[in-house]
Design brief:
Layout (H helix, E strand, L loop, with lengths): L5 H11 L6 H10 L24 H15 L5 H11 L11 H16 L9 H5 L2
Helix pairs in contact: 1-4, 1-5, 2-4
């Protein structure tokens, strides 16, 4: 995995604002938002072509620009990213973040946000700590 940059940490901080909301709550907000370009787009545009690699800086810049344009001006972009992270989505572009950058954010989320969250009430993890 590539090393995270300031870009990744900034987007992680934005998504963390929604860490206490369930993905279902966030999806409900997204469903009720008006004028989302993703609703009229082919879902395939948010997933890299099978077998594609983002080798080289120019390819990465092109993919970032393409995905950023798809999500430009979206009023629920951060909620979309946070919801995908909470659901554990493994692939795709979410909240204006292209696939390779999303993979880095997913790892950071797992290490810094998800791991720091208390286990759900009634889970075995809670019972084991008593």
């Amino acid at each position: 995995m590539r090393e995270p940059t300031v870009f990744h940490y900034v987007r992680l901080a934005e998504a963390r604002r929604f860490a206490e909301h369930s993905w279902q709550e966030l999806d409900a907000v997204i469903r009720t938002a008006d004028g989302l370009r993703c609703r009229s787009s082919n879902p395939d545009v948010f997933f890299p072509e099978e077998g594609s690699r983002f080798a080289g800086r120019q390819a990465m810049r092109d993919e970032r620009a393409r995905v950023a344009e798809l999500c430009r001006g979206c009023p629920v972009r951060t909620e979309c990213l946070a919801s995908a992270l909470q659901r554990g989505e493994a692939y795709g572009s979410w909240g204006g973040i292209c696939q390779p950058d999303y993979q880095i954010l997913r790892q950071l989320w797992s290490e810094r946000v998800h791991a720091a969250a208390p286990p759900p009430a009634g889970s075995t993890a809670v019972k084991e700590t008593r």
